[in-house]
Amino acid sequence: MSLFSFLKKDIIGKLSFVRLFILNLALGLTSLIAIEGLGGSIRNTISQRSKAILGADLTVSARRPISESELQKVVETLPENAKYAHVKELYSMVRGEKPNSRMVQIKAISGDFPFYGTIKTEKNGEAATIKNKQIIWAYPEILFQLGLEVNNKLKVGDMWLDIADVVNDDPSAAISTQMAPRIFMSIDTLKKTGLIKQRSIVRHKIHFHIPNTTEDELETIKDQFNILLPDPDIRISTHKDSGEQTARLANYFNDFLGLTALSALFLSIIGACYLIRSFLASKIHDLAIFLSLGLSHTKILRFYLIEVALLGVVSALIATILSWVLIPLLINLTNEFSPFPLEFSITYGTIALALAAGALTSVFLCYPFLSQIKFLNPNILLKEKSEFPFQWKLKQVLSFIPILVMFFILCLIQAKSLKTGGLFFGLLFLSSVLLIFFGFPTLKIFSQFKSSSALSWKWAVRFLLRHKISTTTSLMAIGLGVLLINFIPQVKTTLTTEFESPNKSKVPSFFLFDIQSDQMQPLESFLEKKDIPINIAAPMIRAKLISVNDIAFEKGKSSNEAMTREEERERRMRNRGFNLSFRGELLNGEEILKGRFFKGTWDEASSKLPEISIVESFAKRLDIKMNDKLKFLIQGLEIEGVVTSFRKVKWNTFNPNFFILFQPGVLEFAPKTHLATIKVNKQSRNMVQNEIVNTFPNVSIIDVTRLIEKIAYYIDQMGDALRWMAALCILCGLFVIFSISYFQSNKNINQIGLYKALGANNQTIRSSFSLQTLLVTIIASLFGILLSFLLNFCFAYFIFDSIPQFEWETPLVTLVILIILTQAISFFTLRKLFKISPRTLINS
Amino acid sequence: MILQTTNLSMSYQQGENSLQVLNDIQIQFSEGETVSITGTSGSGKTTLLSLLAGLESPTSGDIKFQDKSLASMSLEEITKYRAKDIGIIFQQFHLLPHLTALENAALPLEINGDPNAEEKAKEFLTHVKLDHRMHHFPNQLSGGECQRVAIARAFVHSPKLIFADEPTGNLDQGTSNSIMELLFNLIDQYKMTFILITHDLELAARCERTIHLKAGKVQ
Ligand SMILES: Nc1ncnc2c1ncn2[C@@H]1O[C@H](COP(=O)(O)OP(=O)(O)OP(=O)(O)O)[C@@H](O)[C@H]1O
Ligand SMILES: [Mg+2]
User: Fold this and answer.
1) Which CATH number applies to B33-42+74-211?
2) What's the whole-model pTM score?
3) pLDDT exceeds 50 at position A502
4) I want to staple B154 with a disulfide (CB 3.0 to 4.6 A). Which of A286, A420, A487, B87 is the partner?
């Protein structure tokens, strides 16, 4: 007999196991493939649009003007046909003739920009041009929010400008433009508004169009530019970099979803382990017959491994088809986090990967069980009772390592971070261990309630306690599912309560920045007249970190290598200028973790360096230690200080704060702007904002209340998507339960038959099964909910530094829904068994 | 008369065909009697037993237990009949694998709501010489020991009728003998009506009366 026909016969002979196994694995793989497909769609969309997003091939940008000589240096290296165009970006308040104002992002363009893609406008479509005209184009929401129409005027800086058109499609839109909508103008117009001089943050960009270059060539040019422009303040990015940058939020979101997908996979692996174990246990006689017929242990093992690999591939195929339905749904949700619509795409690579993952998962998870075939002795055929001789010695336990390692690697790949991936793996593992070690003993405690001596209760408890493996597997499957579905709402409650707590009174309503030094006095008296105190005012000084302990900071090399999220962030941080501030006392919500805060003002005459205080998490990211010497460049002047304290800042006070603080007495004379926060009651908010904009046109105002609303909105969106994935996890969990009850039904036929033959009435038998399911569901759910509370507590305490808040609605709803679902499953799987006459007992 | 059948027939529907397994059976069992039922394989012995024990209903005819017709009983009454009045011993023992010997033996008492179920079951297990294995699970017991537990389970609630279907069919000769010895002793002691299905003519002869089935008919 050929291997194929043998396999075919074998698979047909155990169809119920095969079906359950495949479906179980398929459900777990579906979520993973869907997430992989979502990631692929993001990557694909980005790579197709990245040139249009940047509007160029390559860009050089800095927070200071890029000098002519710097420009010439790089232009010389480029081919003849290369072109460039200046672009400047900044934030500013604008207002219409009606006294309404709001913050916008100004994008001033010149030359042939954009080189790729077109800014489409309402009236003139793609043909529109803004060059050499003193007009602006605005995003539609600006008109809407300020109650303006096309051809009305907008006050930008010192000038009143015509709104000539409305932007319908801006390929370079980013998430930030959702917070501050954009207006376009020409660079000449921008210069006339007088804004550049008053702004603390202006992005000066030069976009390059280098025709017919491949991505590799662009990377080479980028490296070359980096060498020619060694100033770390200058950032050089290709269209690919900027596409990735734009998709960062969507990618983070995808990573986050990926972890939920892994939880689903984890659950189905647990389910599949249970199935293969039960299957082997039930097949002990067949195996023994094979052995007694002279088939060797290794042959049987090899045969089964091929078979489970095949089952894995089939699962993956089914999962691929299922994910086809799921991906568009996920894409819809992710579009909230992406400035441009994502296009659905699934590559052959993804499918191939899925098939391989299916086969490997299946083989790895089955191996620890299948390898035990070697402990099987055909002489069991002669013995009366037949239990599979599973032996969990060290070597057998170790054979679980491949599946664990594979899962761990998947975690790392999904999270793109050793820390997050490891943490996730750890938490999942820990939760499982907690469920294993505490779930079952809890059940034992429950069994002590003998007062309710109802027979069905007694039978239910006894059955559960004596089937430790299936009970524990059920507890884990439901418990983890409940944990995942409850965790997000819990954390969200903590976060939103923090926003809306009585402490809200301390949260400022407006954040003012770009206040010039000579405007501080007038602003204060202006606000004083309105009886609005300034909560906090802080000076802000632009600086660049040039060395740590006299070792110069290197400019990051460009690389295409897969970087973890942490590496990526560290690289971004190092190339960046910093905003420094100085003050003599700690703010509300600040705390010194290490060292001590500044002692008074720096004495110029002393030989000691000025003291620096750094936010701890920031220091960690830049790898700065206590007592390190930091040298900054501030407007051409080098200033050195020594780190004497690490601070911790409570972020949700929304107070302006700075990663790096200098001791007073050092930076007083450096050129600076100021930040301030004010608290205004709701009714007069609009009025105050408009008046400040009128009186101090260069001061920018962020409406903190709106910002908080926006964050809450994103959390909501995130929660929605996560709930979908968590629902998939629950589905996997339920499927595990279904598999278990289905697989046990053989045992149950005998059990029900016997109970009937012994004269137990149907009601008692039914309710004993109901109670079994109910008990497992309730205990597992309680554990899941408790664990979600615990995780919420840890998150609140360690990460958000706030008081955990708990929510009861989701836990209660999940509990009720799960009870209904598991009861339905139990009813469904047992329905047929109750129809069978007890006579079958005698026949078997 | 403790148990009596009238025109008892049983047929099974198998697709188009119906298979007549029992045909117009008339038998009576008086109280305290021991009766064996013999016949070739497939002659309908087990079917008869399952009808007598109320495990399934006949296609036609009736069974009377103490002058009450099983056909007229409600489901609840049939259940009660199985719980209180009969005990069955199966060839395959049919112990619940997740229960200990003691718990298995105590099941009928539990079902009947006896508050001292465990005590009584313990007593009975001592009776069948299994007191030292009470807390073992079926897979830790030998075949003979399993059948002892099953015997204890059949007797423990003092039913009026004991049915046994090839109780030693799965056991070796030696064990078989001692199990049968035990069974007959207990029957003797408790004065129960005993209906034994067996191939073994020697065993059958130990009963007061033998009914021979052939192709669904009493010979
Ligand atoms: N549920 C059923 N459906 C169809 N046919 C059945 C069913 N149960 C029993 N039979 C048939 O009824 C006939 C009698 O079966 P029964 O089990 O009563 O025989 P038996 O005398 O106990 O035989 P053995 O000595 O082998 O145990 C057999 O031919 C059997 O195939
Ligand atoms: Mg039979």
Assistant:
1) 3.40.50.300
2) 0.75
3) no
4) B87
